[in-house]
Write a structure and sequence with these properties.
This protein is α+β, with helices and mostly antiparallel strands. It is about 30% helix and about 30% strand.
C-alpha cells in the first residue's frame, strides 16, 4: 500500500492514592506485566508511549523494581517513550498554579532519575482541560500533551482535520496538543484487530501521511471485567501487534516525541473547557443526565445523527463539586493546606525539610480519583476519601512542626473555609480539628483526629444516580465475548434494587431532628421519616467564646417543630490538649404538657462494618459489629472500637437516653459491577422531651476519641510528626 500513516499508541496506567495493596498487585499481574511480556516478543517496529501515574510508579519501584528496569531498557532502545504528568494525578483545574508546576516538575525529575527518560510530553489527568492551563504546563517544561478528538470537535475542528497535532498558546507560551481518537478507544481492545486495521486503512487512503493517536487506560488490557481472558488468554494483544507488524510498510507505530519532531503542526487551535465525552455526561445533574442518555439513544440511529452529534455535549467538570458536596469539602481542605504551605514557605526561620515533606503529602492529597464519580467508584469509595484526608491532615501536622507550633495549643477561627460566601468555624488543638457550618443546620462537617490523620466525618450522603435505573431493571448479560464497561450490568450482591435509599440532607454530625413520637427506626435509617422541625438544614447564628485554655463554638437558631416556636442553642467546647468534645444542647419554648421527639444525629466515617474487631460496646460489653442496627434505651454511654485503625470513640450523656445506630450504605458502580458500600455509622441519641417550668430542656454529651492503641504501634518519630 502506497499511502502510510503514523500510529501513536499511548497507555495510561494508574492506581490512586489509598487503593489497596492487593488491587495494585492484581492490576500488575493482570495488566501491566502481561502487556510488557507480549510487547517484548515483538520487534522495533512496535513502539508505544507509556504514562504511569506517580502513586503506581512508586508502588512498582518498591514492589516490582524489575519491571521498571525493563521499562528503562526499552527507553534506552527507543521503543517506549515515557510520558510525564502530574506526580499524584491531580486534575489540573482543581489545584493552584504553583502546585500544577510543582507536581509536573517533581515527577519529571523522578522519571529522569529512575528511568533515564527524557520527558517532553505529559498525560492530562482525565483529559480535563481549560485553556489557561497552557502557560503553567509550558512553564513546567512540557512541550506536548494529548486530549480527545471530542475537545477539538467542540472547538469546531472537523474530523478530516484531526489527523495530526495542533499548537495552542496562552500568555505567549506554546503547547502542542494531539487529538486522541474516540473511535480507537472503542475499538481497542474490544473489536477484532482486523477492524482496527480496516479503520486505519480508510484513514491512510483518504489522509496519507497523517497521525492517528490512541490514548486510554492500560487497565483496559487485562484489569477491566473479562479483558484478561480476551486480551491475553485468547491472544487479542498478540494478534493486534502481529497485525501491526504485517502492515508495517504503511502503519508506522511511532512515539509522540517523534511525531512532534518530525512533522509540523496542522495549525493553531484554542480548545474550550472539557474532558472526554463520558465525563461531561457524568457531571450533569441526574435528571439532565437521564434526559441526555435518552435523547442520545433516541437520535443515534437517525440519519442526521453524525451531523448533530458534533454539537451535543454535557456539563462542566468543576460542577462535580456541586453534585457531590463531599468533594468540595476535600477540595476546600486541600486549598487551605496549599495556602498554608505557601505562606509557611515565605517565612524565615522555618524547617524547610519538614515543609518538603508537607508538600509531598499535599500533592498526594490532590490525587483526583475521589474528587468525582463516573463509571467506577470514585467518591463512593471510602478508602480513597480517607487517603486524601490522611495526606492533607499529615501535611497540616508537618506544617505545624515546621513553623514551630507549640506542643499544646488551642485556637478557633471564623472564615469562609469552603468558598460558599458564608462563614464556617474551625476549632483546633494539637489533637483534633473540627469544622462547623452554622448556615447549614449548625452541622459539624469535618472532625480530624490528628494523632492518626483520620477524618471521622469523611462521610457520603445517599443520593440518586442515573445508573440506578439499571439497578432497578436488574442484571443483564452483555453480548459478545467482551463488553465495554458502559454496557455491563452485573450485581455483586443480591437485592440491590431494594437498597436504593436517599437522603434529603448531608449525613454529617450535630444534625437536629424532630420526629413523630412513634416513628419507626427503619424509616429514620432509610431517610424516609418525616421531619417535623425546620432545624436540619436551617441557618444558625454562631459565635466563639474564648478562655485561655478552653474555647466554645456556640450556635443558636429560632425555628419551630410542629408549629411550636423553639430556640435551640448548641455549644461545642474543646480544651487545650484534649481529644474530647463537650456538646451541650439547650432547647427553649418546649411545651410542658406534651412530649416532643428530639434527636441529634452523628455520623462517623472510616469505621467499616463486617468485622469482629470493629464493634459497639458499653464498657467491656460488646454489642455487635459496627454495621448493626441497635435500638437501645435508658443508657448513658456507648463506644465504637476499630482495633485495626486503633481508635475508640466513646459517647456519653448526662441523662438516660435512647439510642439508634444504623449503617449508611450506598449502591454504586465499580469495575466488578454494582455493589453495596458502607459509608458511615450513624449514632442517633433521641429523647421525648418536655419543658421544665420555664419551658427549657437541656442535655450535655461528650465525644471522647482515644487513639492510644494506634499510637502504641507507631514509631516514636511518627508519633512526634502527627502530634
Amino acid at each position: 500500500m502506497s499511502n502510510s500513516i503514523r500510529l501513536c499508541l499511548v497507555l495510561h496506567n494508574h492506581q490512586p492514592i489509598g487503593n489497596f495493596d492487593g488491587v495494585f498487585e492484581q492490576a500488575y499481574q493482570d495488566s501491566y506485566l502481561p502487556f510488557l511480556d507480549v510487547f517484548d516478543r515483538f520487534s522495533d517496529a512496535i513502539k508505544i508511549g507509556l504514562h504511569t501515574s506517580g502513586p503506581l510508579m512508586e508502588w512498582l519501584d518498591l514492589h516490582h523494581p524489575e519491571y521498571l528496569d525493563r521499562l528503562a531498557a526499552h527507553v534506552r532502545s527507543g521503543r517506549i517513550e515515557i510520558i510525564g504528568g502530574v506526580f499524584y494525578e491531580a486534575i489540573l483545574t482543581m489545584i493552584p498554579g504553583r502546585d500544577r508546576v510543582g507536581q509536573i516538575r517533581t515527577y519529571t525529575q523522578w522519571l529522569e532519575n529512575r528511568l533515564g527518560a527524557t520527558i517532553g510530553g505529559m498525560w492530562m489527568p482525565e483529559r480535563v482541560w481549560e485553556q489557561q492551563l497552557t502557560s503553567d504546563i509550558a512553564e513546567a517544561g512540557i512541550r506536548y500533551t494529548l486530549l480527545d478528538d471530542f475537545h477539538f470537535k467542540n472547538a469546531g475542528v472537523q474530523q478530516d482535520d484531526l489527523y495530526g497535532y495542533y499548537v495552542t498558546e496562552e500568555a505567549g507560551k506554546l503547547l502542542s496538543i494531539f487529538p486522541g481518537s474516540e473511535r480507537m478507544r472503542y475499538l481497542l481492545p474490544f473489536a477484532p484487530p482486523q477492524d482496527t486495521i480496516a479503520y486505519l486503512r480508510g484513514i491512510a487512503e483518504n489522509h496519507p501521511n497523517s497521525v492517528v493517536v490512541f490514548g486510554d487506560d492500560g487497565e483496559k488490557f487485562g484489569t477491566w471485567p473479562d479483558t484478561k481472558a480476551h486480551v491475553y488468554d485468547r491472544g487479542w494483544l498478540n494478534d493486534f501487534f502481529t497485525a501491526l507488524e504485517k502492515n508495517k510498510d504503511w502503519i508506522h507505530t511511532t512515539t509522540l516525541a517523534e511525531a512532534v519532531d518530525g512533522l509540523p503542526p496542522v495549525g493553531k487551535v484554542f480548545l474550550p473547557e472539557g474532558s472526554y465525552r463520558e465525563m461531561t455526561e457524568w457531571v450533569l445533574p441526574v435528571p439532565q443526565q437521564v434526559a441526555y442518555e435518552d435523547l442520545v439513544h433516541e437520535l443515534e440511529h437517525e440519519p442526521n445523527w453524525p451531523r448533530i452529534k458534533q454539537f451535543v455535549r454535557g456539563g462542566y467538570w468543576r460542577n462535580f463539586k456541586v453534585r457531590y458536596p463531599e468533594t468540595d469539602e476535600m477540595y476546600s481542605r486541600m486549598m487551605a493546606v496549599s495556602q498554608r504551605l505557601d505562606a509557611a514557605r515565605r517565612q524565615s526561620d522555618v524547617d524547610q525539610a519538614q515543609l518538603d515533606l508537607a508538600q509531598t503529602e499535599l500533592y498526594r492529597g490532590q490525587c483526583n480519583c475521589s474528587y468525582w464519580h463516573g463509571a467506577f467508584g470514585g467518591v463512593y469509595l471510602p478508602h480513597l476519601r480517607n487517603a486524601v484526608y490522611t495526606a492533607l491532615i499529615a501535611a497540616d501536622n508537618l506544617i505545624d512542626a515546621a513553623v514551630g507550633q507549640p506542643a499544646s495549643y488551642i485556637d478557633a477561627e471564623a472564615a469562609d473555609f469552603n468558598f460558599d460566601a458564608r462563614q464556617e468555624i474551625k476549632l483546633v488543638d494539637e489533637k483534633l480539628l473540627a469544622l462547623f457550618a452554622p448556615a447549614q443546620g449548625g452541622m459539624m462537617y469535618e472532625l480530624d483526629v490528628r494523632t492518626i490523620c483520620h477524618n471521622l466525618l469523611a462521610t457520603l450522603t445517599r443520593r440518586p444516580e442515573a445508573y440506578h435505573r439499571k439497578v432497578l431493571a436488574g442484571p443483564s448479560a452483555a453480548g459478545g465475548d467482551v463488553a465495554s464497561i458502559h454496557d455491563r450490568v452485573v450485581f455483586k450482591q443480591e437485592g440491590l434494587d431494594e437498597r436504593l435509599q436517599y437522603d434529603s440532607y448531608a449525613r454529617k454530625s450535630l444534625i437536629d431532628h424532630f420526629y413523630d413520637n412513634d416513628v419507626a427506626p427503619e424509616l429514620v435509617a432509610n431517610g424516609e421519616a418525616q421531619e417535623r422541625g425546620d432545624f436540619v438544614d436551617g441557618a444558625y447564628e454562631a459565635k466563639i467564646r474564648r478562655n485561655p485554655d478552653r474555647i466554645q463554638v456556640q450556635m443558636y437558631r429560632e425555628g419551630n417543630a410542629w408549629g411550636v416556636p423553639l430556640k435551640i442553642t448548641k455549644g461545642v467546647t474543646l480544651s487545650a490538649g484534649s481529644s474530647t468534645l463537650e456538646i451541650a444542647y439547650l432547647i427553649e419554648g418546649v411545651p410542658q404538657d406534651q412530649p416532643m421527639h428530639f434527636a441529634v444525629e452523628m455520623n462517623f466515617a472510616g469505621l467499616p462494618s463486617g468485622a469482629d474487631d470493629r464493634y459497639f460496646h458499653q464498657g467491656s460489653d460488646p454489642l455487635g459489629q459496627l454495621g448493626e442496627r441497635l435500638d437501645l434505651h435508658e443508657m448513658t454511654t456507648l463506644g465504637m472500637t476499630d482495633q485495626w485503625l486503633g481508635i475508640d470513640v466513646r459517647w456519653e450523656a448526662d441523662q438516660p437516653t435512647s439510642m439508634w445506630t444504623f449503617p449508611i450504605e450506598t449502591v454504586s458502580q465499580s469495575e466488578g459491577g454494582f455493589e453495596l458500600v458502607h459509608q458511615s455509622v450513624a449514632l442517633m441519641p433521641h429523647w421525648w422531651i418536655q419543658g421544665d417550668k420555664e419551658g427549657r430542656w437541656s442535655v450535655t454529651m461528650k465525644l471522647e476519641i482515644d487513639t492510644t492503641l494506634a499510637e502504641s504501634r507507631m514509631p516514636s518519630a511518627e508519633v512526634a510528626a502527627t502530634t
